[in-house]
Amino acid sequence: MARGMVIVGAGECGGRAALTLRDLGYAGPVTLVGDEPHLPYERPPLSKDAMVSDAPEIRAIASDEVLAEKSISHIHSVQAMAIDREAHKVRLSDGSVLPYDKLLLATGSTPRKLPMPGLGARCVYLRTFADALAIRAHLHTGSRIAIVGGGFIGLELAAAARKLGAAVTVIEAQPRILMRGVPAEIAEIIHDAHVAEGVDILCGDGIASIADDGSEARVTLAGGREIVADLAIIGIGAVPVTGLAAEAGLAIDNGIAVDAQLRTGDPDIFAAGDCCSFPLAVYGGRRVRLEAWRNAQEQGVLAAKNMLGAGEAHAAVPWFWSDQYGLSLQISGLSDEGRSIVRRDLGDGAFILFHLAEDGRLVAASGIGPGNAVARDIRLAEMLIAKRAKPAPDALGSQTVKLKSLLAA
Amino acid sequence: MSDWVAACAAGDIDEEDVMRFDHGGRTFAIYRSPDDEYFATDGLCTHEKVHLADGLVMDDIIECPKHNGRFNYKTGDARGAPVCVNLKTYPVKVDAGKVLVRIR
Ligand SMILES: Cc1cc2nc3c(=O)[nH]c(=O)nc-3n(C[C@H](O)[C@H](O)[C@H](O)COP(=O)(O)OP(=O)(O)OC[C@H]3O[C@@H](n4cnc5c(N)ncnc54)[C@H](O)[C@@H]3O)c2cc1C
Ligand code: FES
């Protein structure tokens, strides 16, 4: 009898992988193990719509009914503790042991901890629904919120907190917000939007110390300024969850190292989503780790295919979005691959920056604008990037040349 | 009783493109396929209620602008995560250069 497929981590990636195994007709046992008490759910709303809602709810990737209908066994609130590669078994925190034919590690990432003493009950991180509920309880008129780190999650939280009437200070050690992966021109638009909404953004000043007495957090900056907050939310990036893989002797390289087919060094163990690093074909196999929702979804699907022997290589272009106030940002590709920038204005203040490599190849596109103004052109740019196209800069910059026409060329 | 409503002129939409159409407090998306046929669906994505008309049409697929969920706009079938609920479709005809949609 088949031992079946075991997926560790019931998040975006693990959930999609389980569903895909069934969609592809796999008939053996499929077991999804997750240490959270919930159905697999989408994290992006946690810092957006769910955070401003009066009663935040989980947006599940699959309901209990769908999981039952597809005979996917979902073991929740249980952690996978160890992998016995020889015996093809995973040991769980409830003492049970799961045999597997193929194992997928979709353990995600976890917030990077601020390496500093003094943090207490009023210093928190956001990753899970439980974290979101705890934060939500502090966001109301008159509450004082300090956000440590001017990255996406911090800024989305700043926007949510303002919407709920809190006083918000964002503390960023770098000279500007969104230093990682976002061009200065776009970061400036986002910065200005926050300032216009009343957020106090402090850039270029690191934290000297934090004193948290359990009822408030006092954040002292290197420059001497002190910010007193009812809640300090720390958003300084994420680190991959690799402990289980490392202890099983699998290679770790800024994430669980996999090949283009998402295989670890063990032919029966795959890794996908936020927890893995993989070679990105579109940039000549550059090894990257992405913390992005669509990547988790796509890699979950790809891992499922390859667990069934498809042997398919990852070929997608990275894509990311963020919503703050009425603005949406979308980025496809990795902009650090670019050497020059061409700007295309789309009207209503929306614009796209096309990032070109030395040889003229389009390697990334970053867009910002109200609503979904940039979505269609970012999607077309993504297809151009995938085709490794070298569109004429004049055409990219001209609003009258349709991007779709460049794709046909 | 005729419940055919004029949505736009046939030439208002490019081939392989989509347009938003609001009527009676509701919103729809009107499509022109690459082979020059017209179709209509509900205007909002079934994932987060975003206007599909801001999305990209590729063959018989409309891709949502927000998170790239996909639907077949001819049948309304949900075709790619994160969408799993189908779109409602509406009959369309072209008469004297006008695109008419039957709204029930
Ligand atoms: C607040 C927030 C907002 C975001 N917004 C955006 C956005 O706007 N756009 C975007 O592109 N991306 C966004 N992301 C990123 C996106 O959500 C992630 O890339 C995605 O969730 C990764 O999916 P994953 O399945 O790889 O990991 P995860 O979703 O982290 O799931 C991994 C799961 O595995 C569990 N787990 C780990 N180890 C074990 C173990 N040993 N045993 C059992 N279970 C285990 C974890 O608890 C977790 O439930 C956001 C993330 C957060 C936190
Ligand atoms: S709103 Fe359409 S895919 Fe999410």
TrEMBL record, chain A:
Entry keyword set: FAD, Flavoprotein, Oxidoreductase
Ranges where the Reductase C-terminal domain occurs: 319-407
Pfam hit, one: Pyr_redox_2
InterPro entries for this protein: FAD-oxidoreductase/Apoptosis (IPR050446), FAD/NAD-bd_sf (IPR036188), FAD/NAD-binding_dom (IPR023753), FAD/NAD-linked_Rdtase_dimer_sf (IPR016156), Reductase_C (IPR028202)
Keyword set includes Flavoprotein: yes
Entry cofactors: FAD
Residues of the FAD/NAD(P)-binding domain: 5-300
Keyword Amino-acid biosynthesis belongs to the record: no
PANTHER family: APOPTOSIS-INDUCING FACTOR 1, RIESKE DOMAIN-CONTAINING PROTEIN-RELATED
Protein name (Swiss-Prot/TrEMBL): FAD-dependent oxidoreductase
UniProtKB/TrEMBL annotation, chain B:
Cofactor entry: [2Fe-2S] cluster
InterPro entries, sorted: MocE_2FeS (IPR012747), Rieske_2Fe-2S (IPR017941), Rieske_2Fe-2S_sf (IPR036922)
Record keywords: 2Fe-2S, Iron, Iron-sulfur, Metal-binding
Domain Rieske: 5-101
Family: Belongs to the bacterial ring-hydroxylating dioxygenase ferredoxin component family.
The protein, known as: MocE family 2Fe-2S type ferredoxin
Species the sequence originates in: Mesorhizobium qingshengii
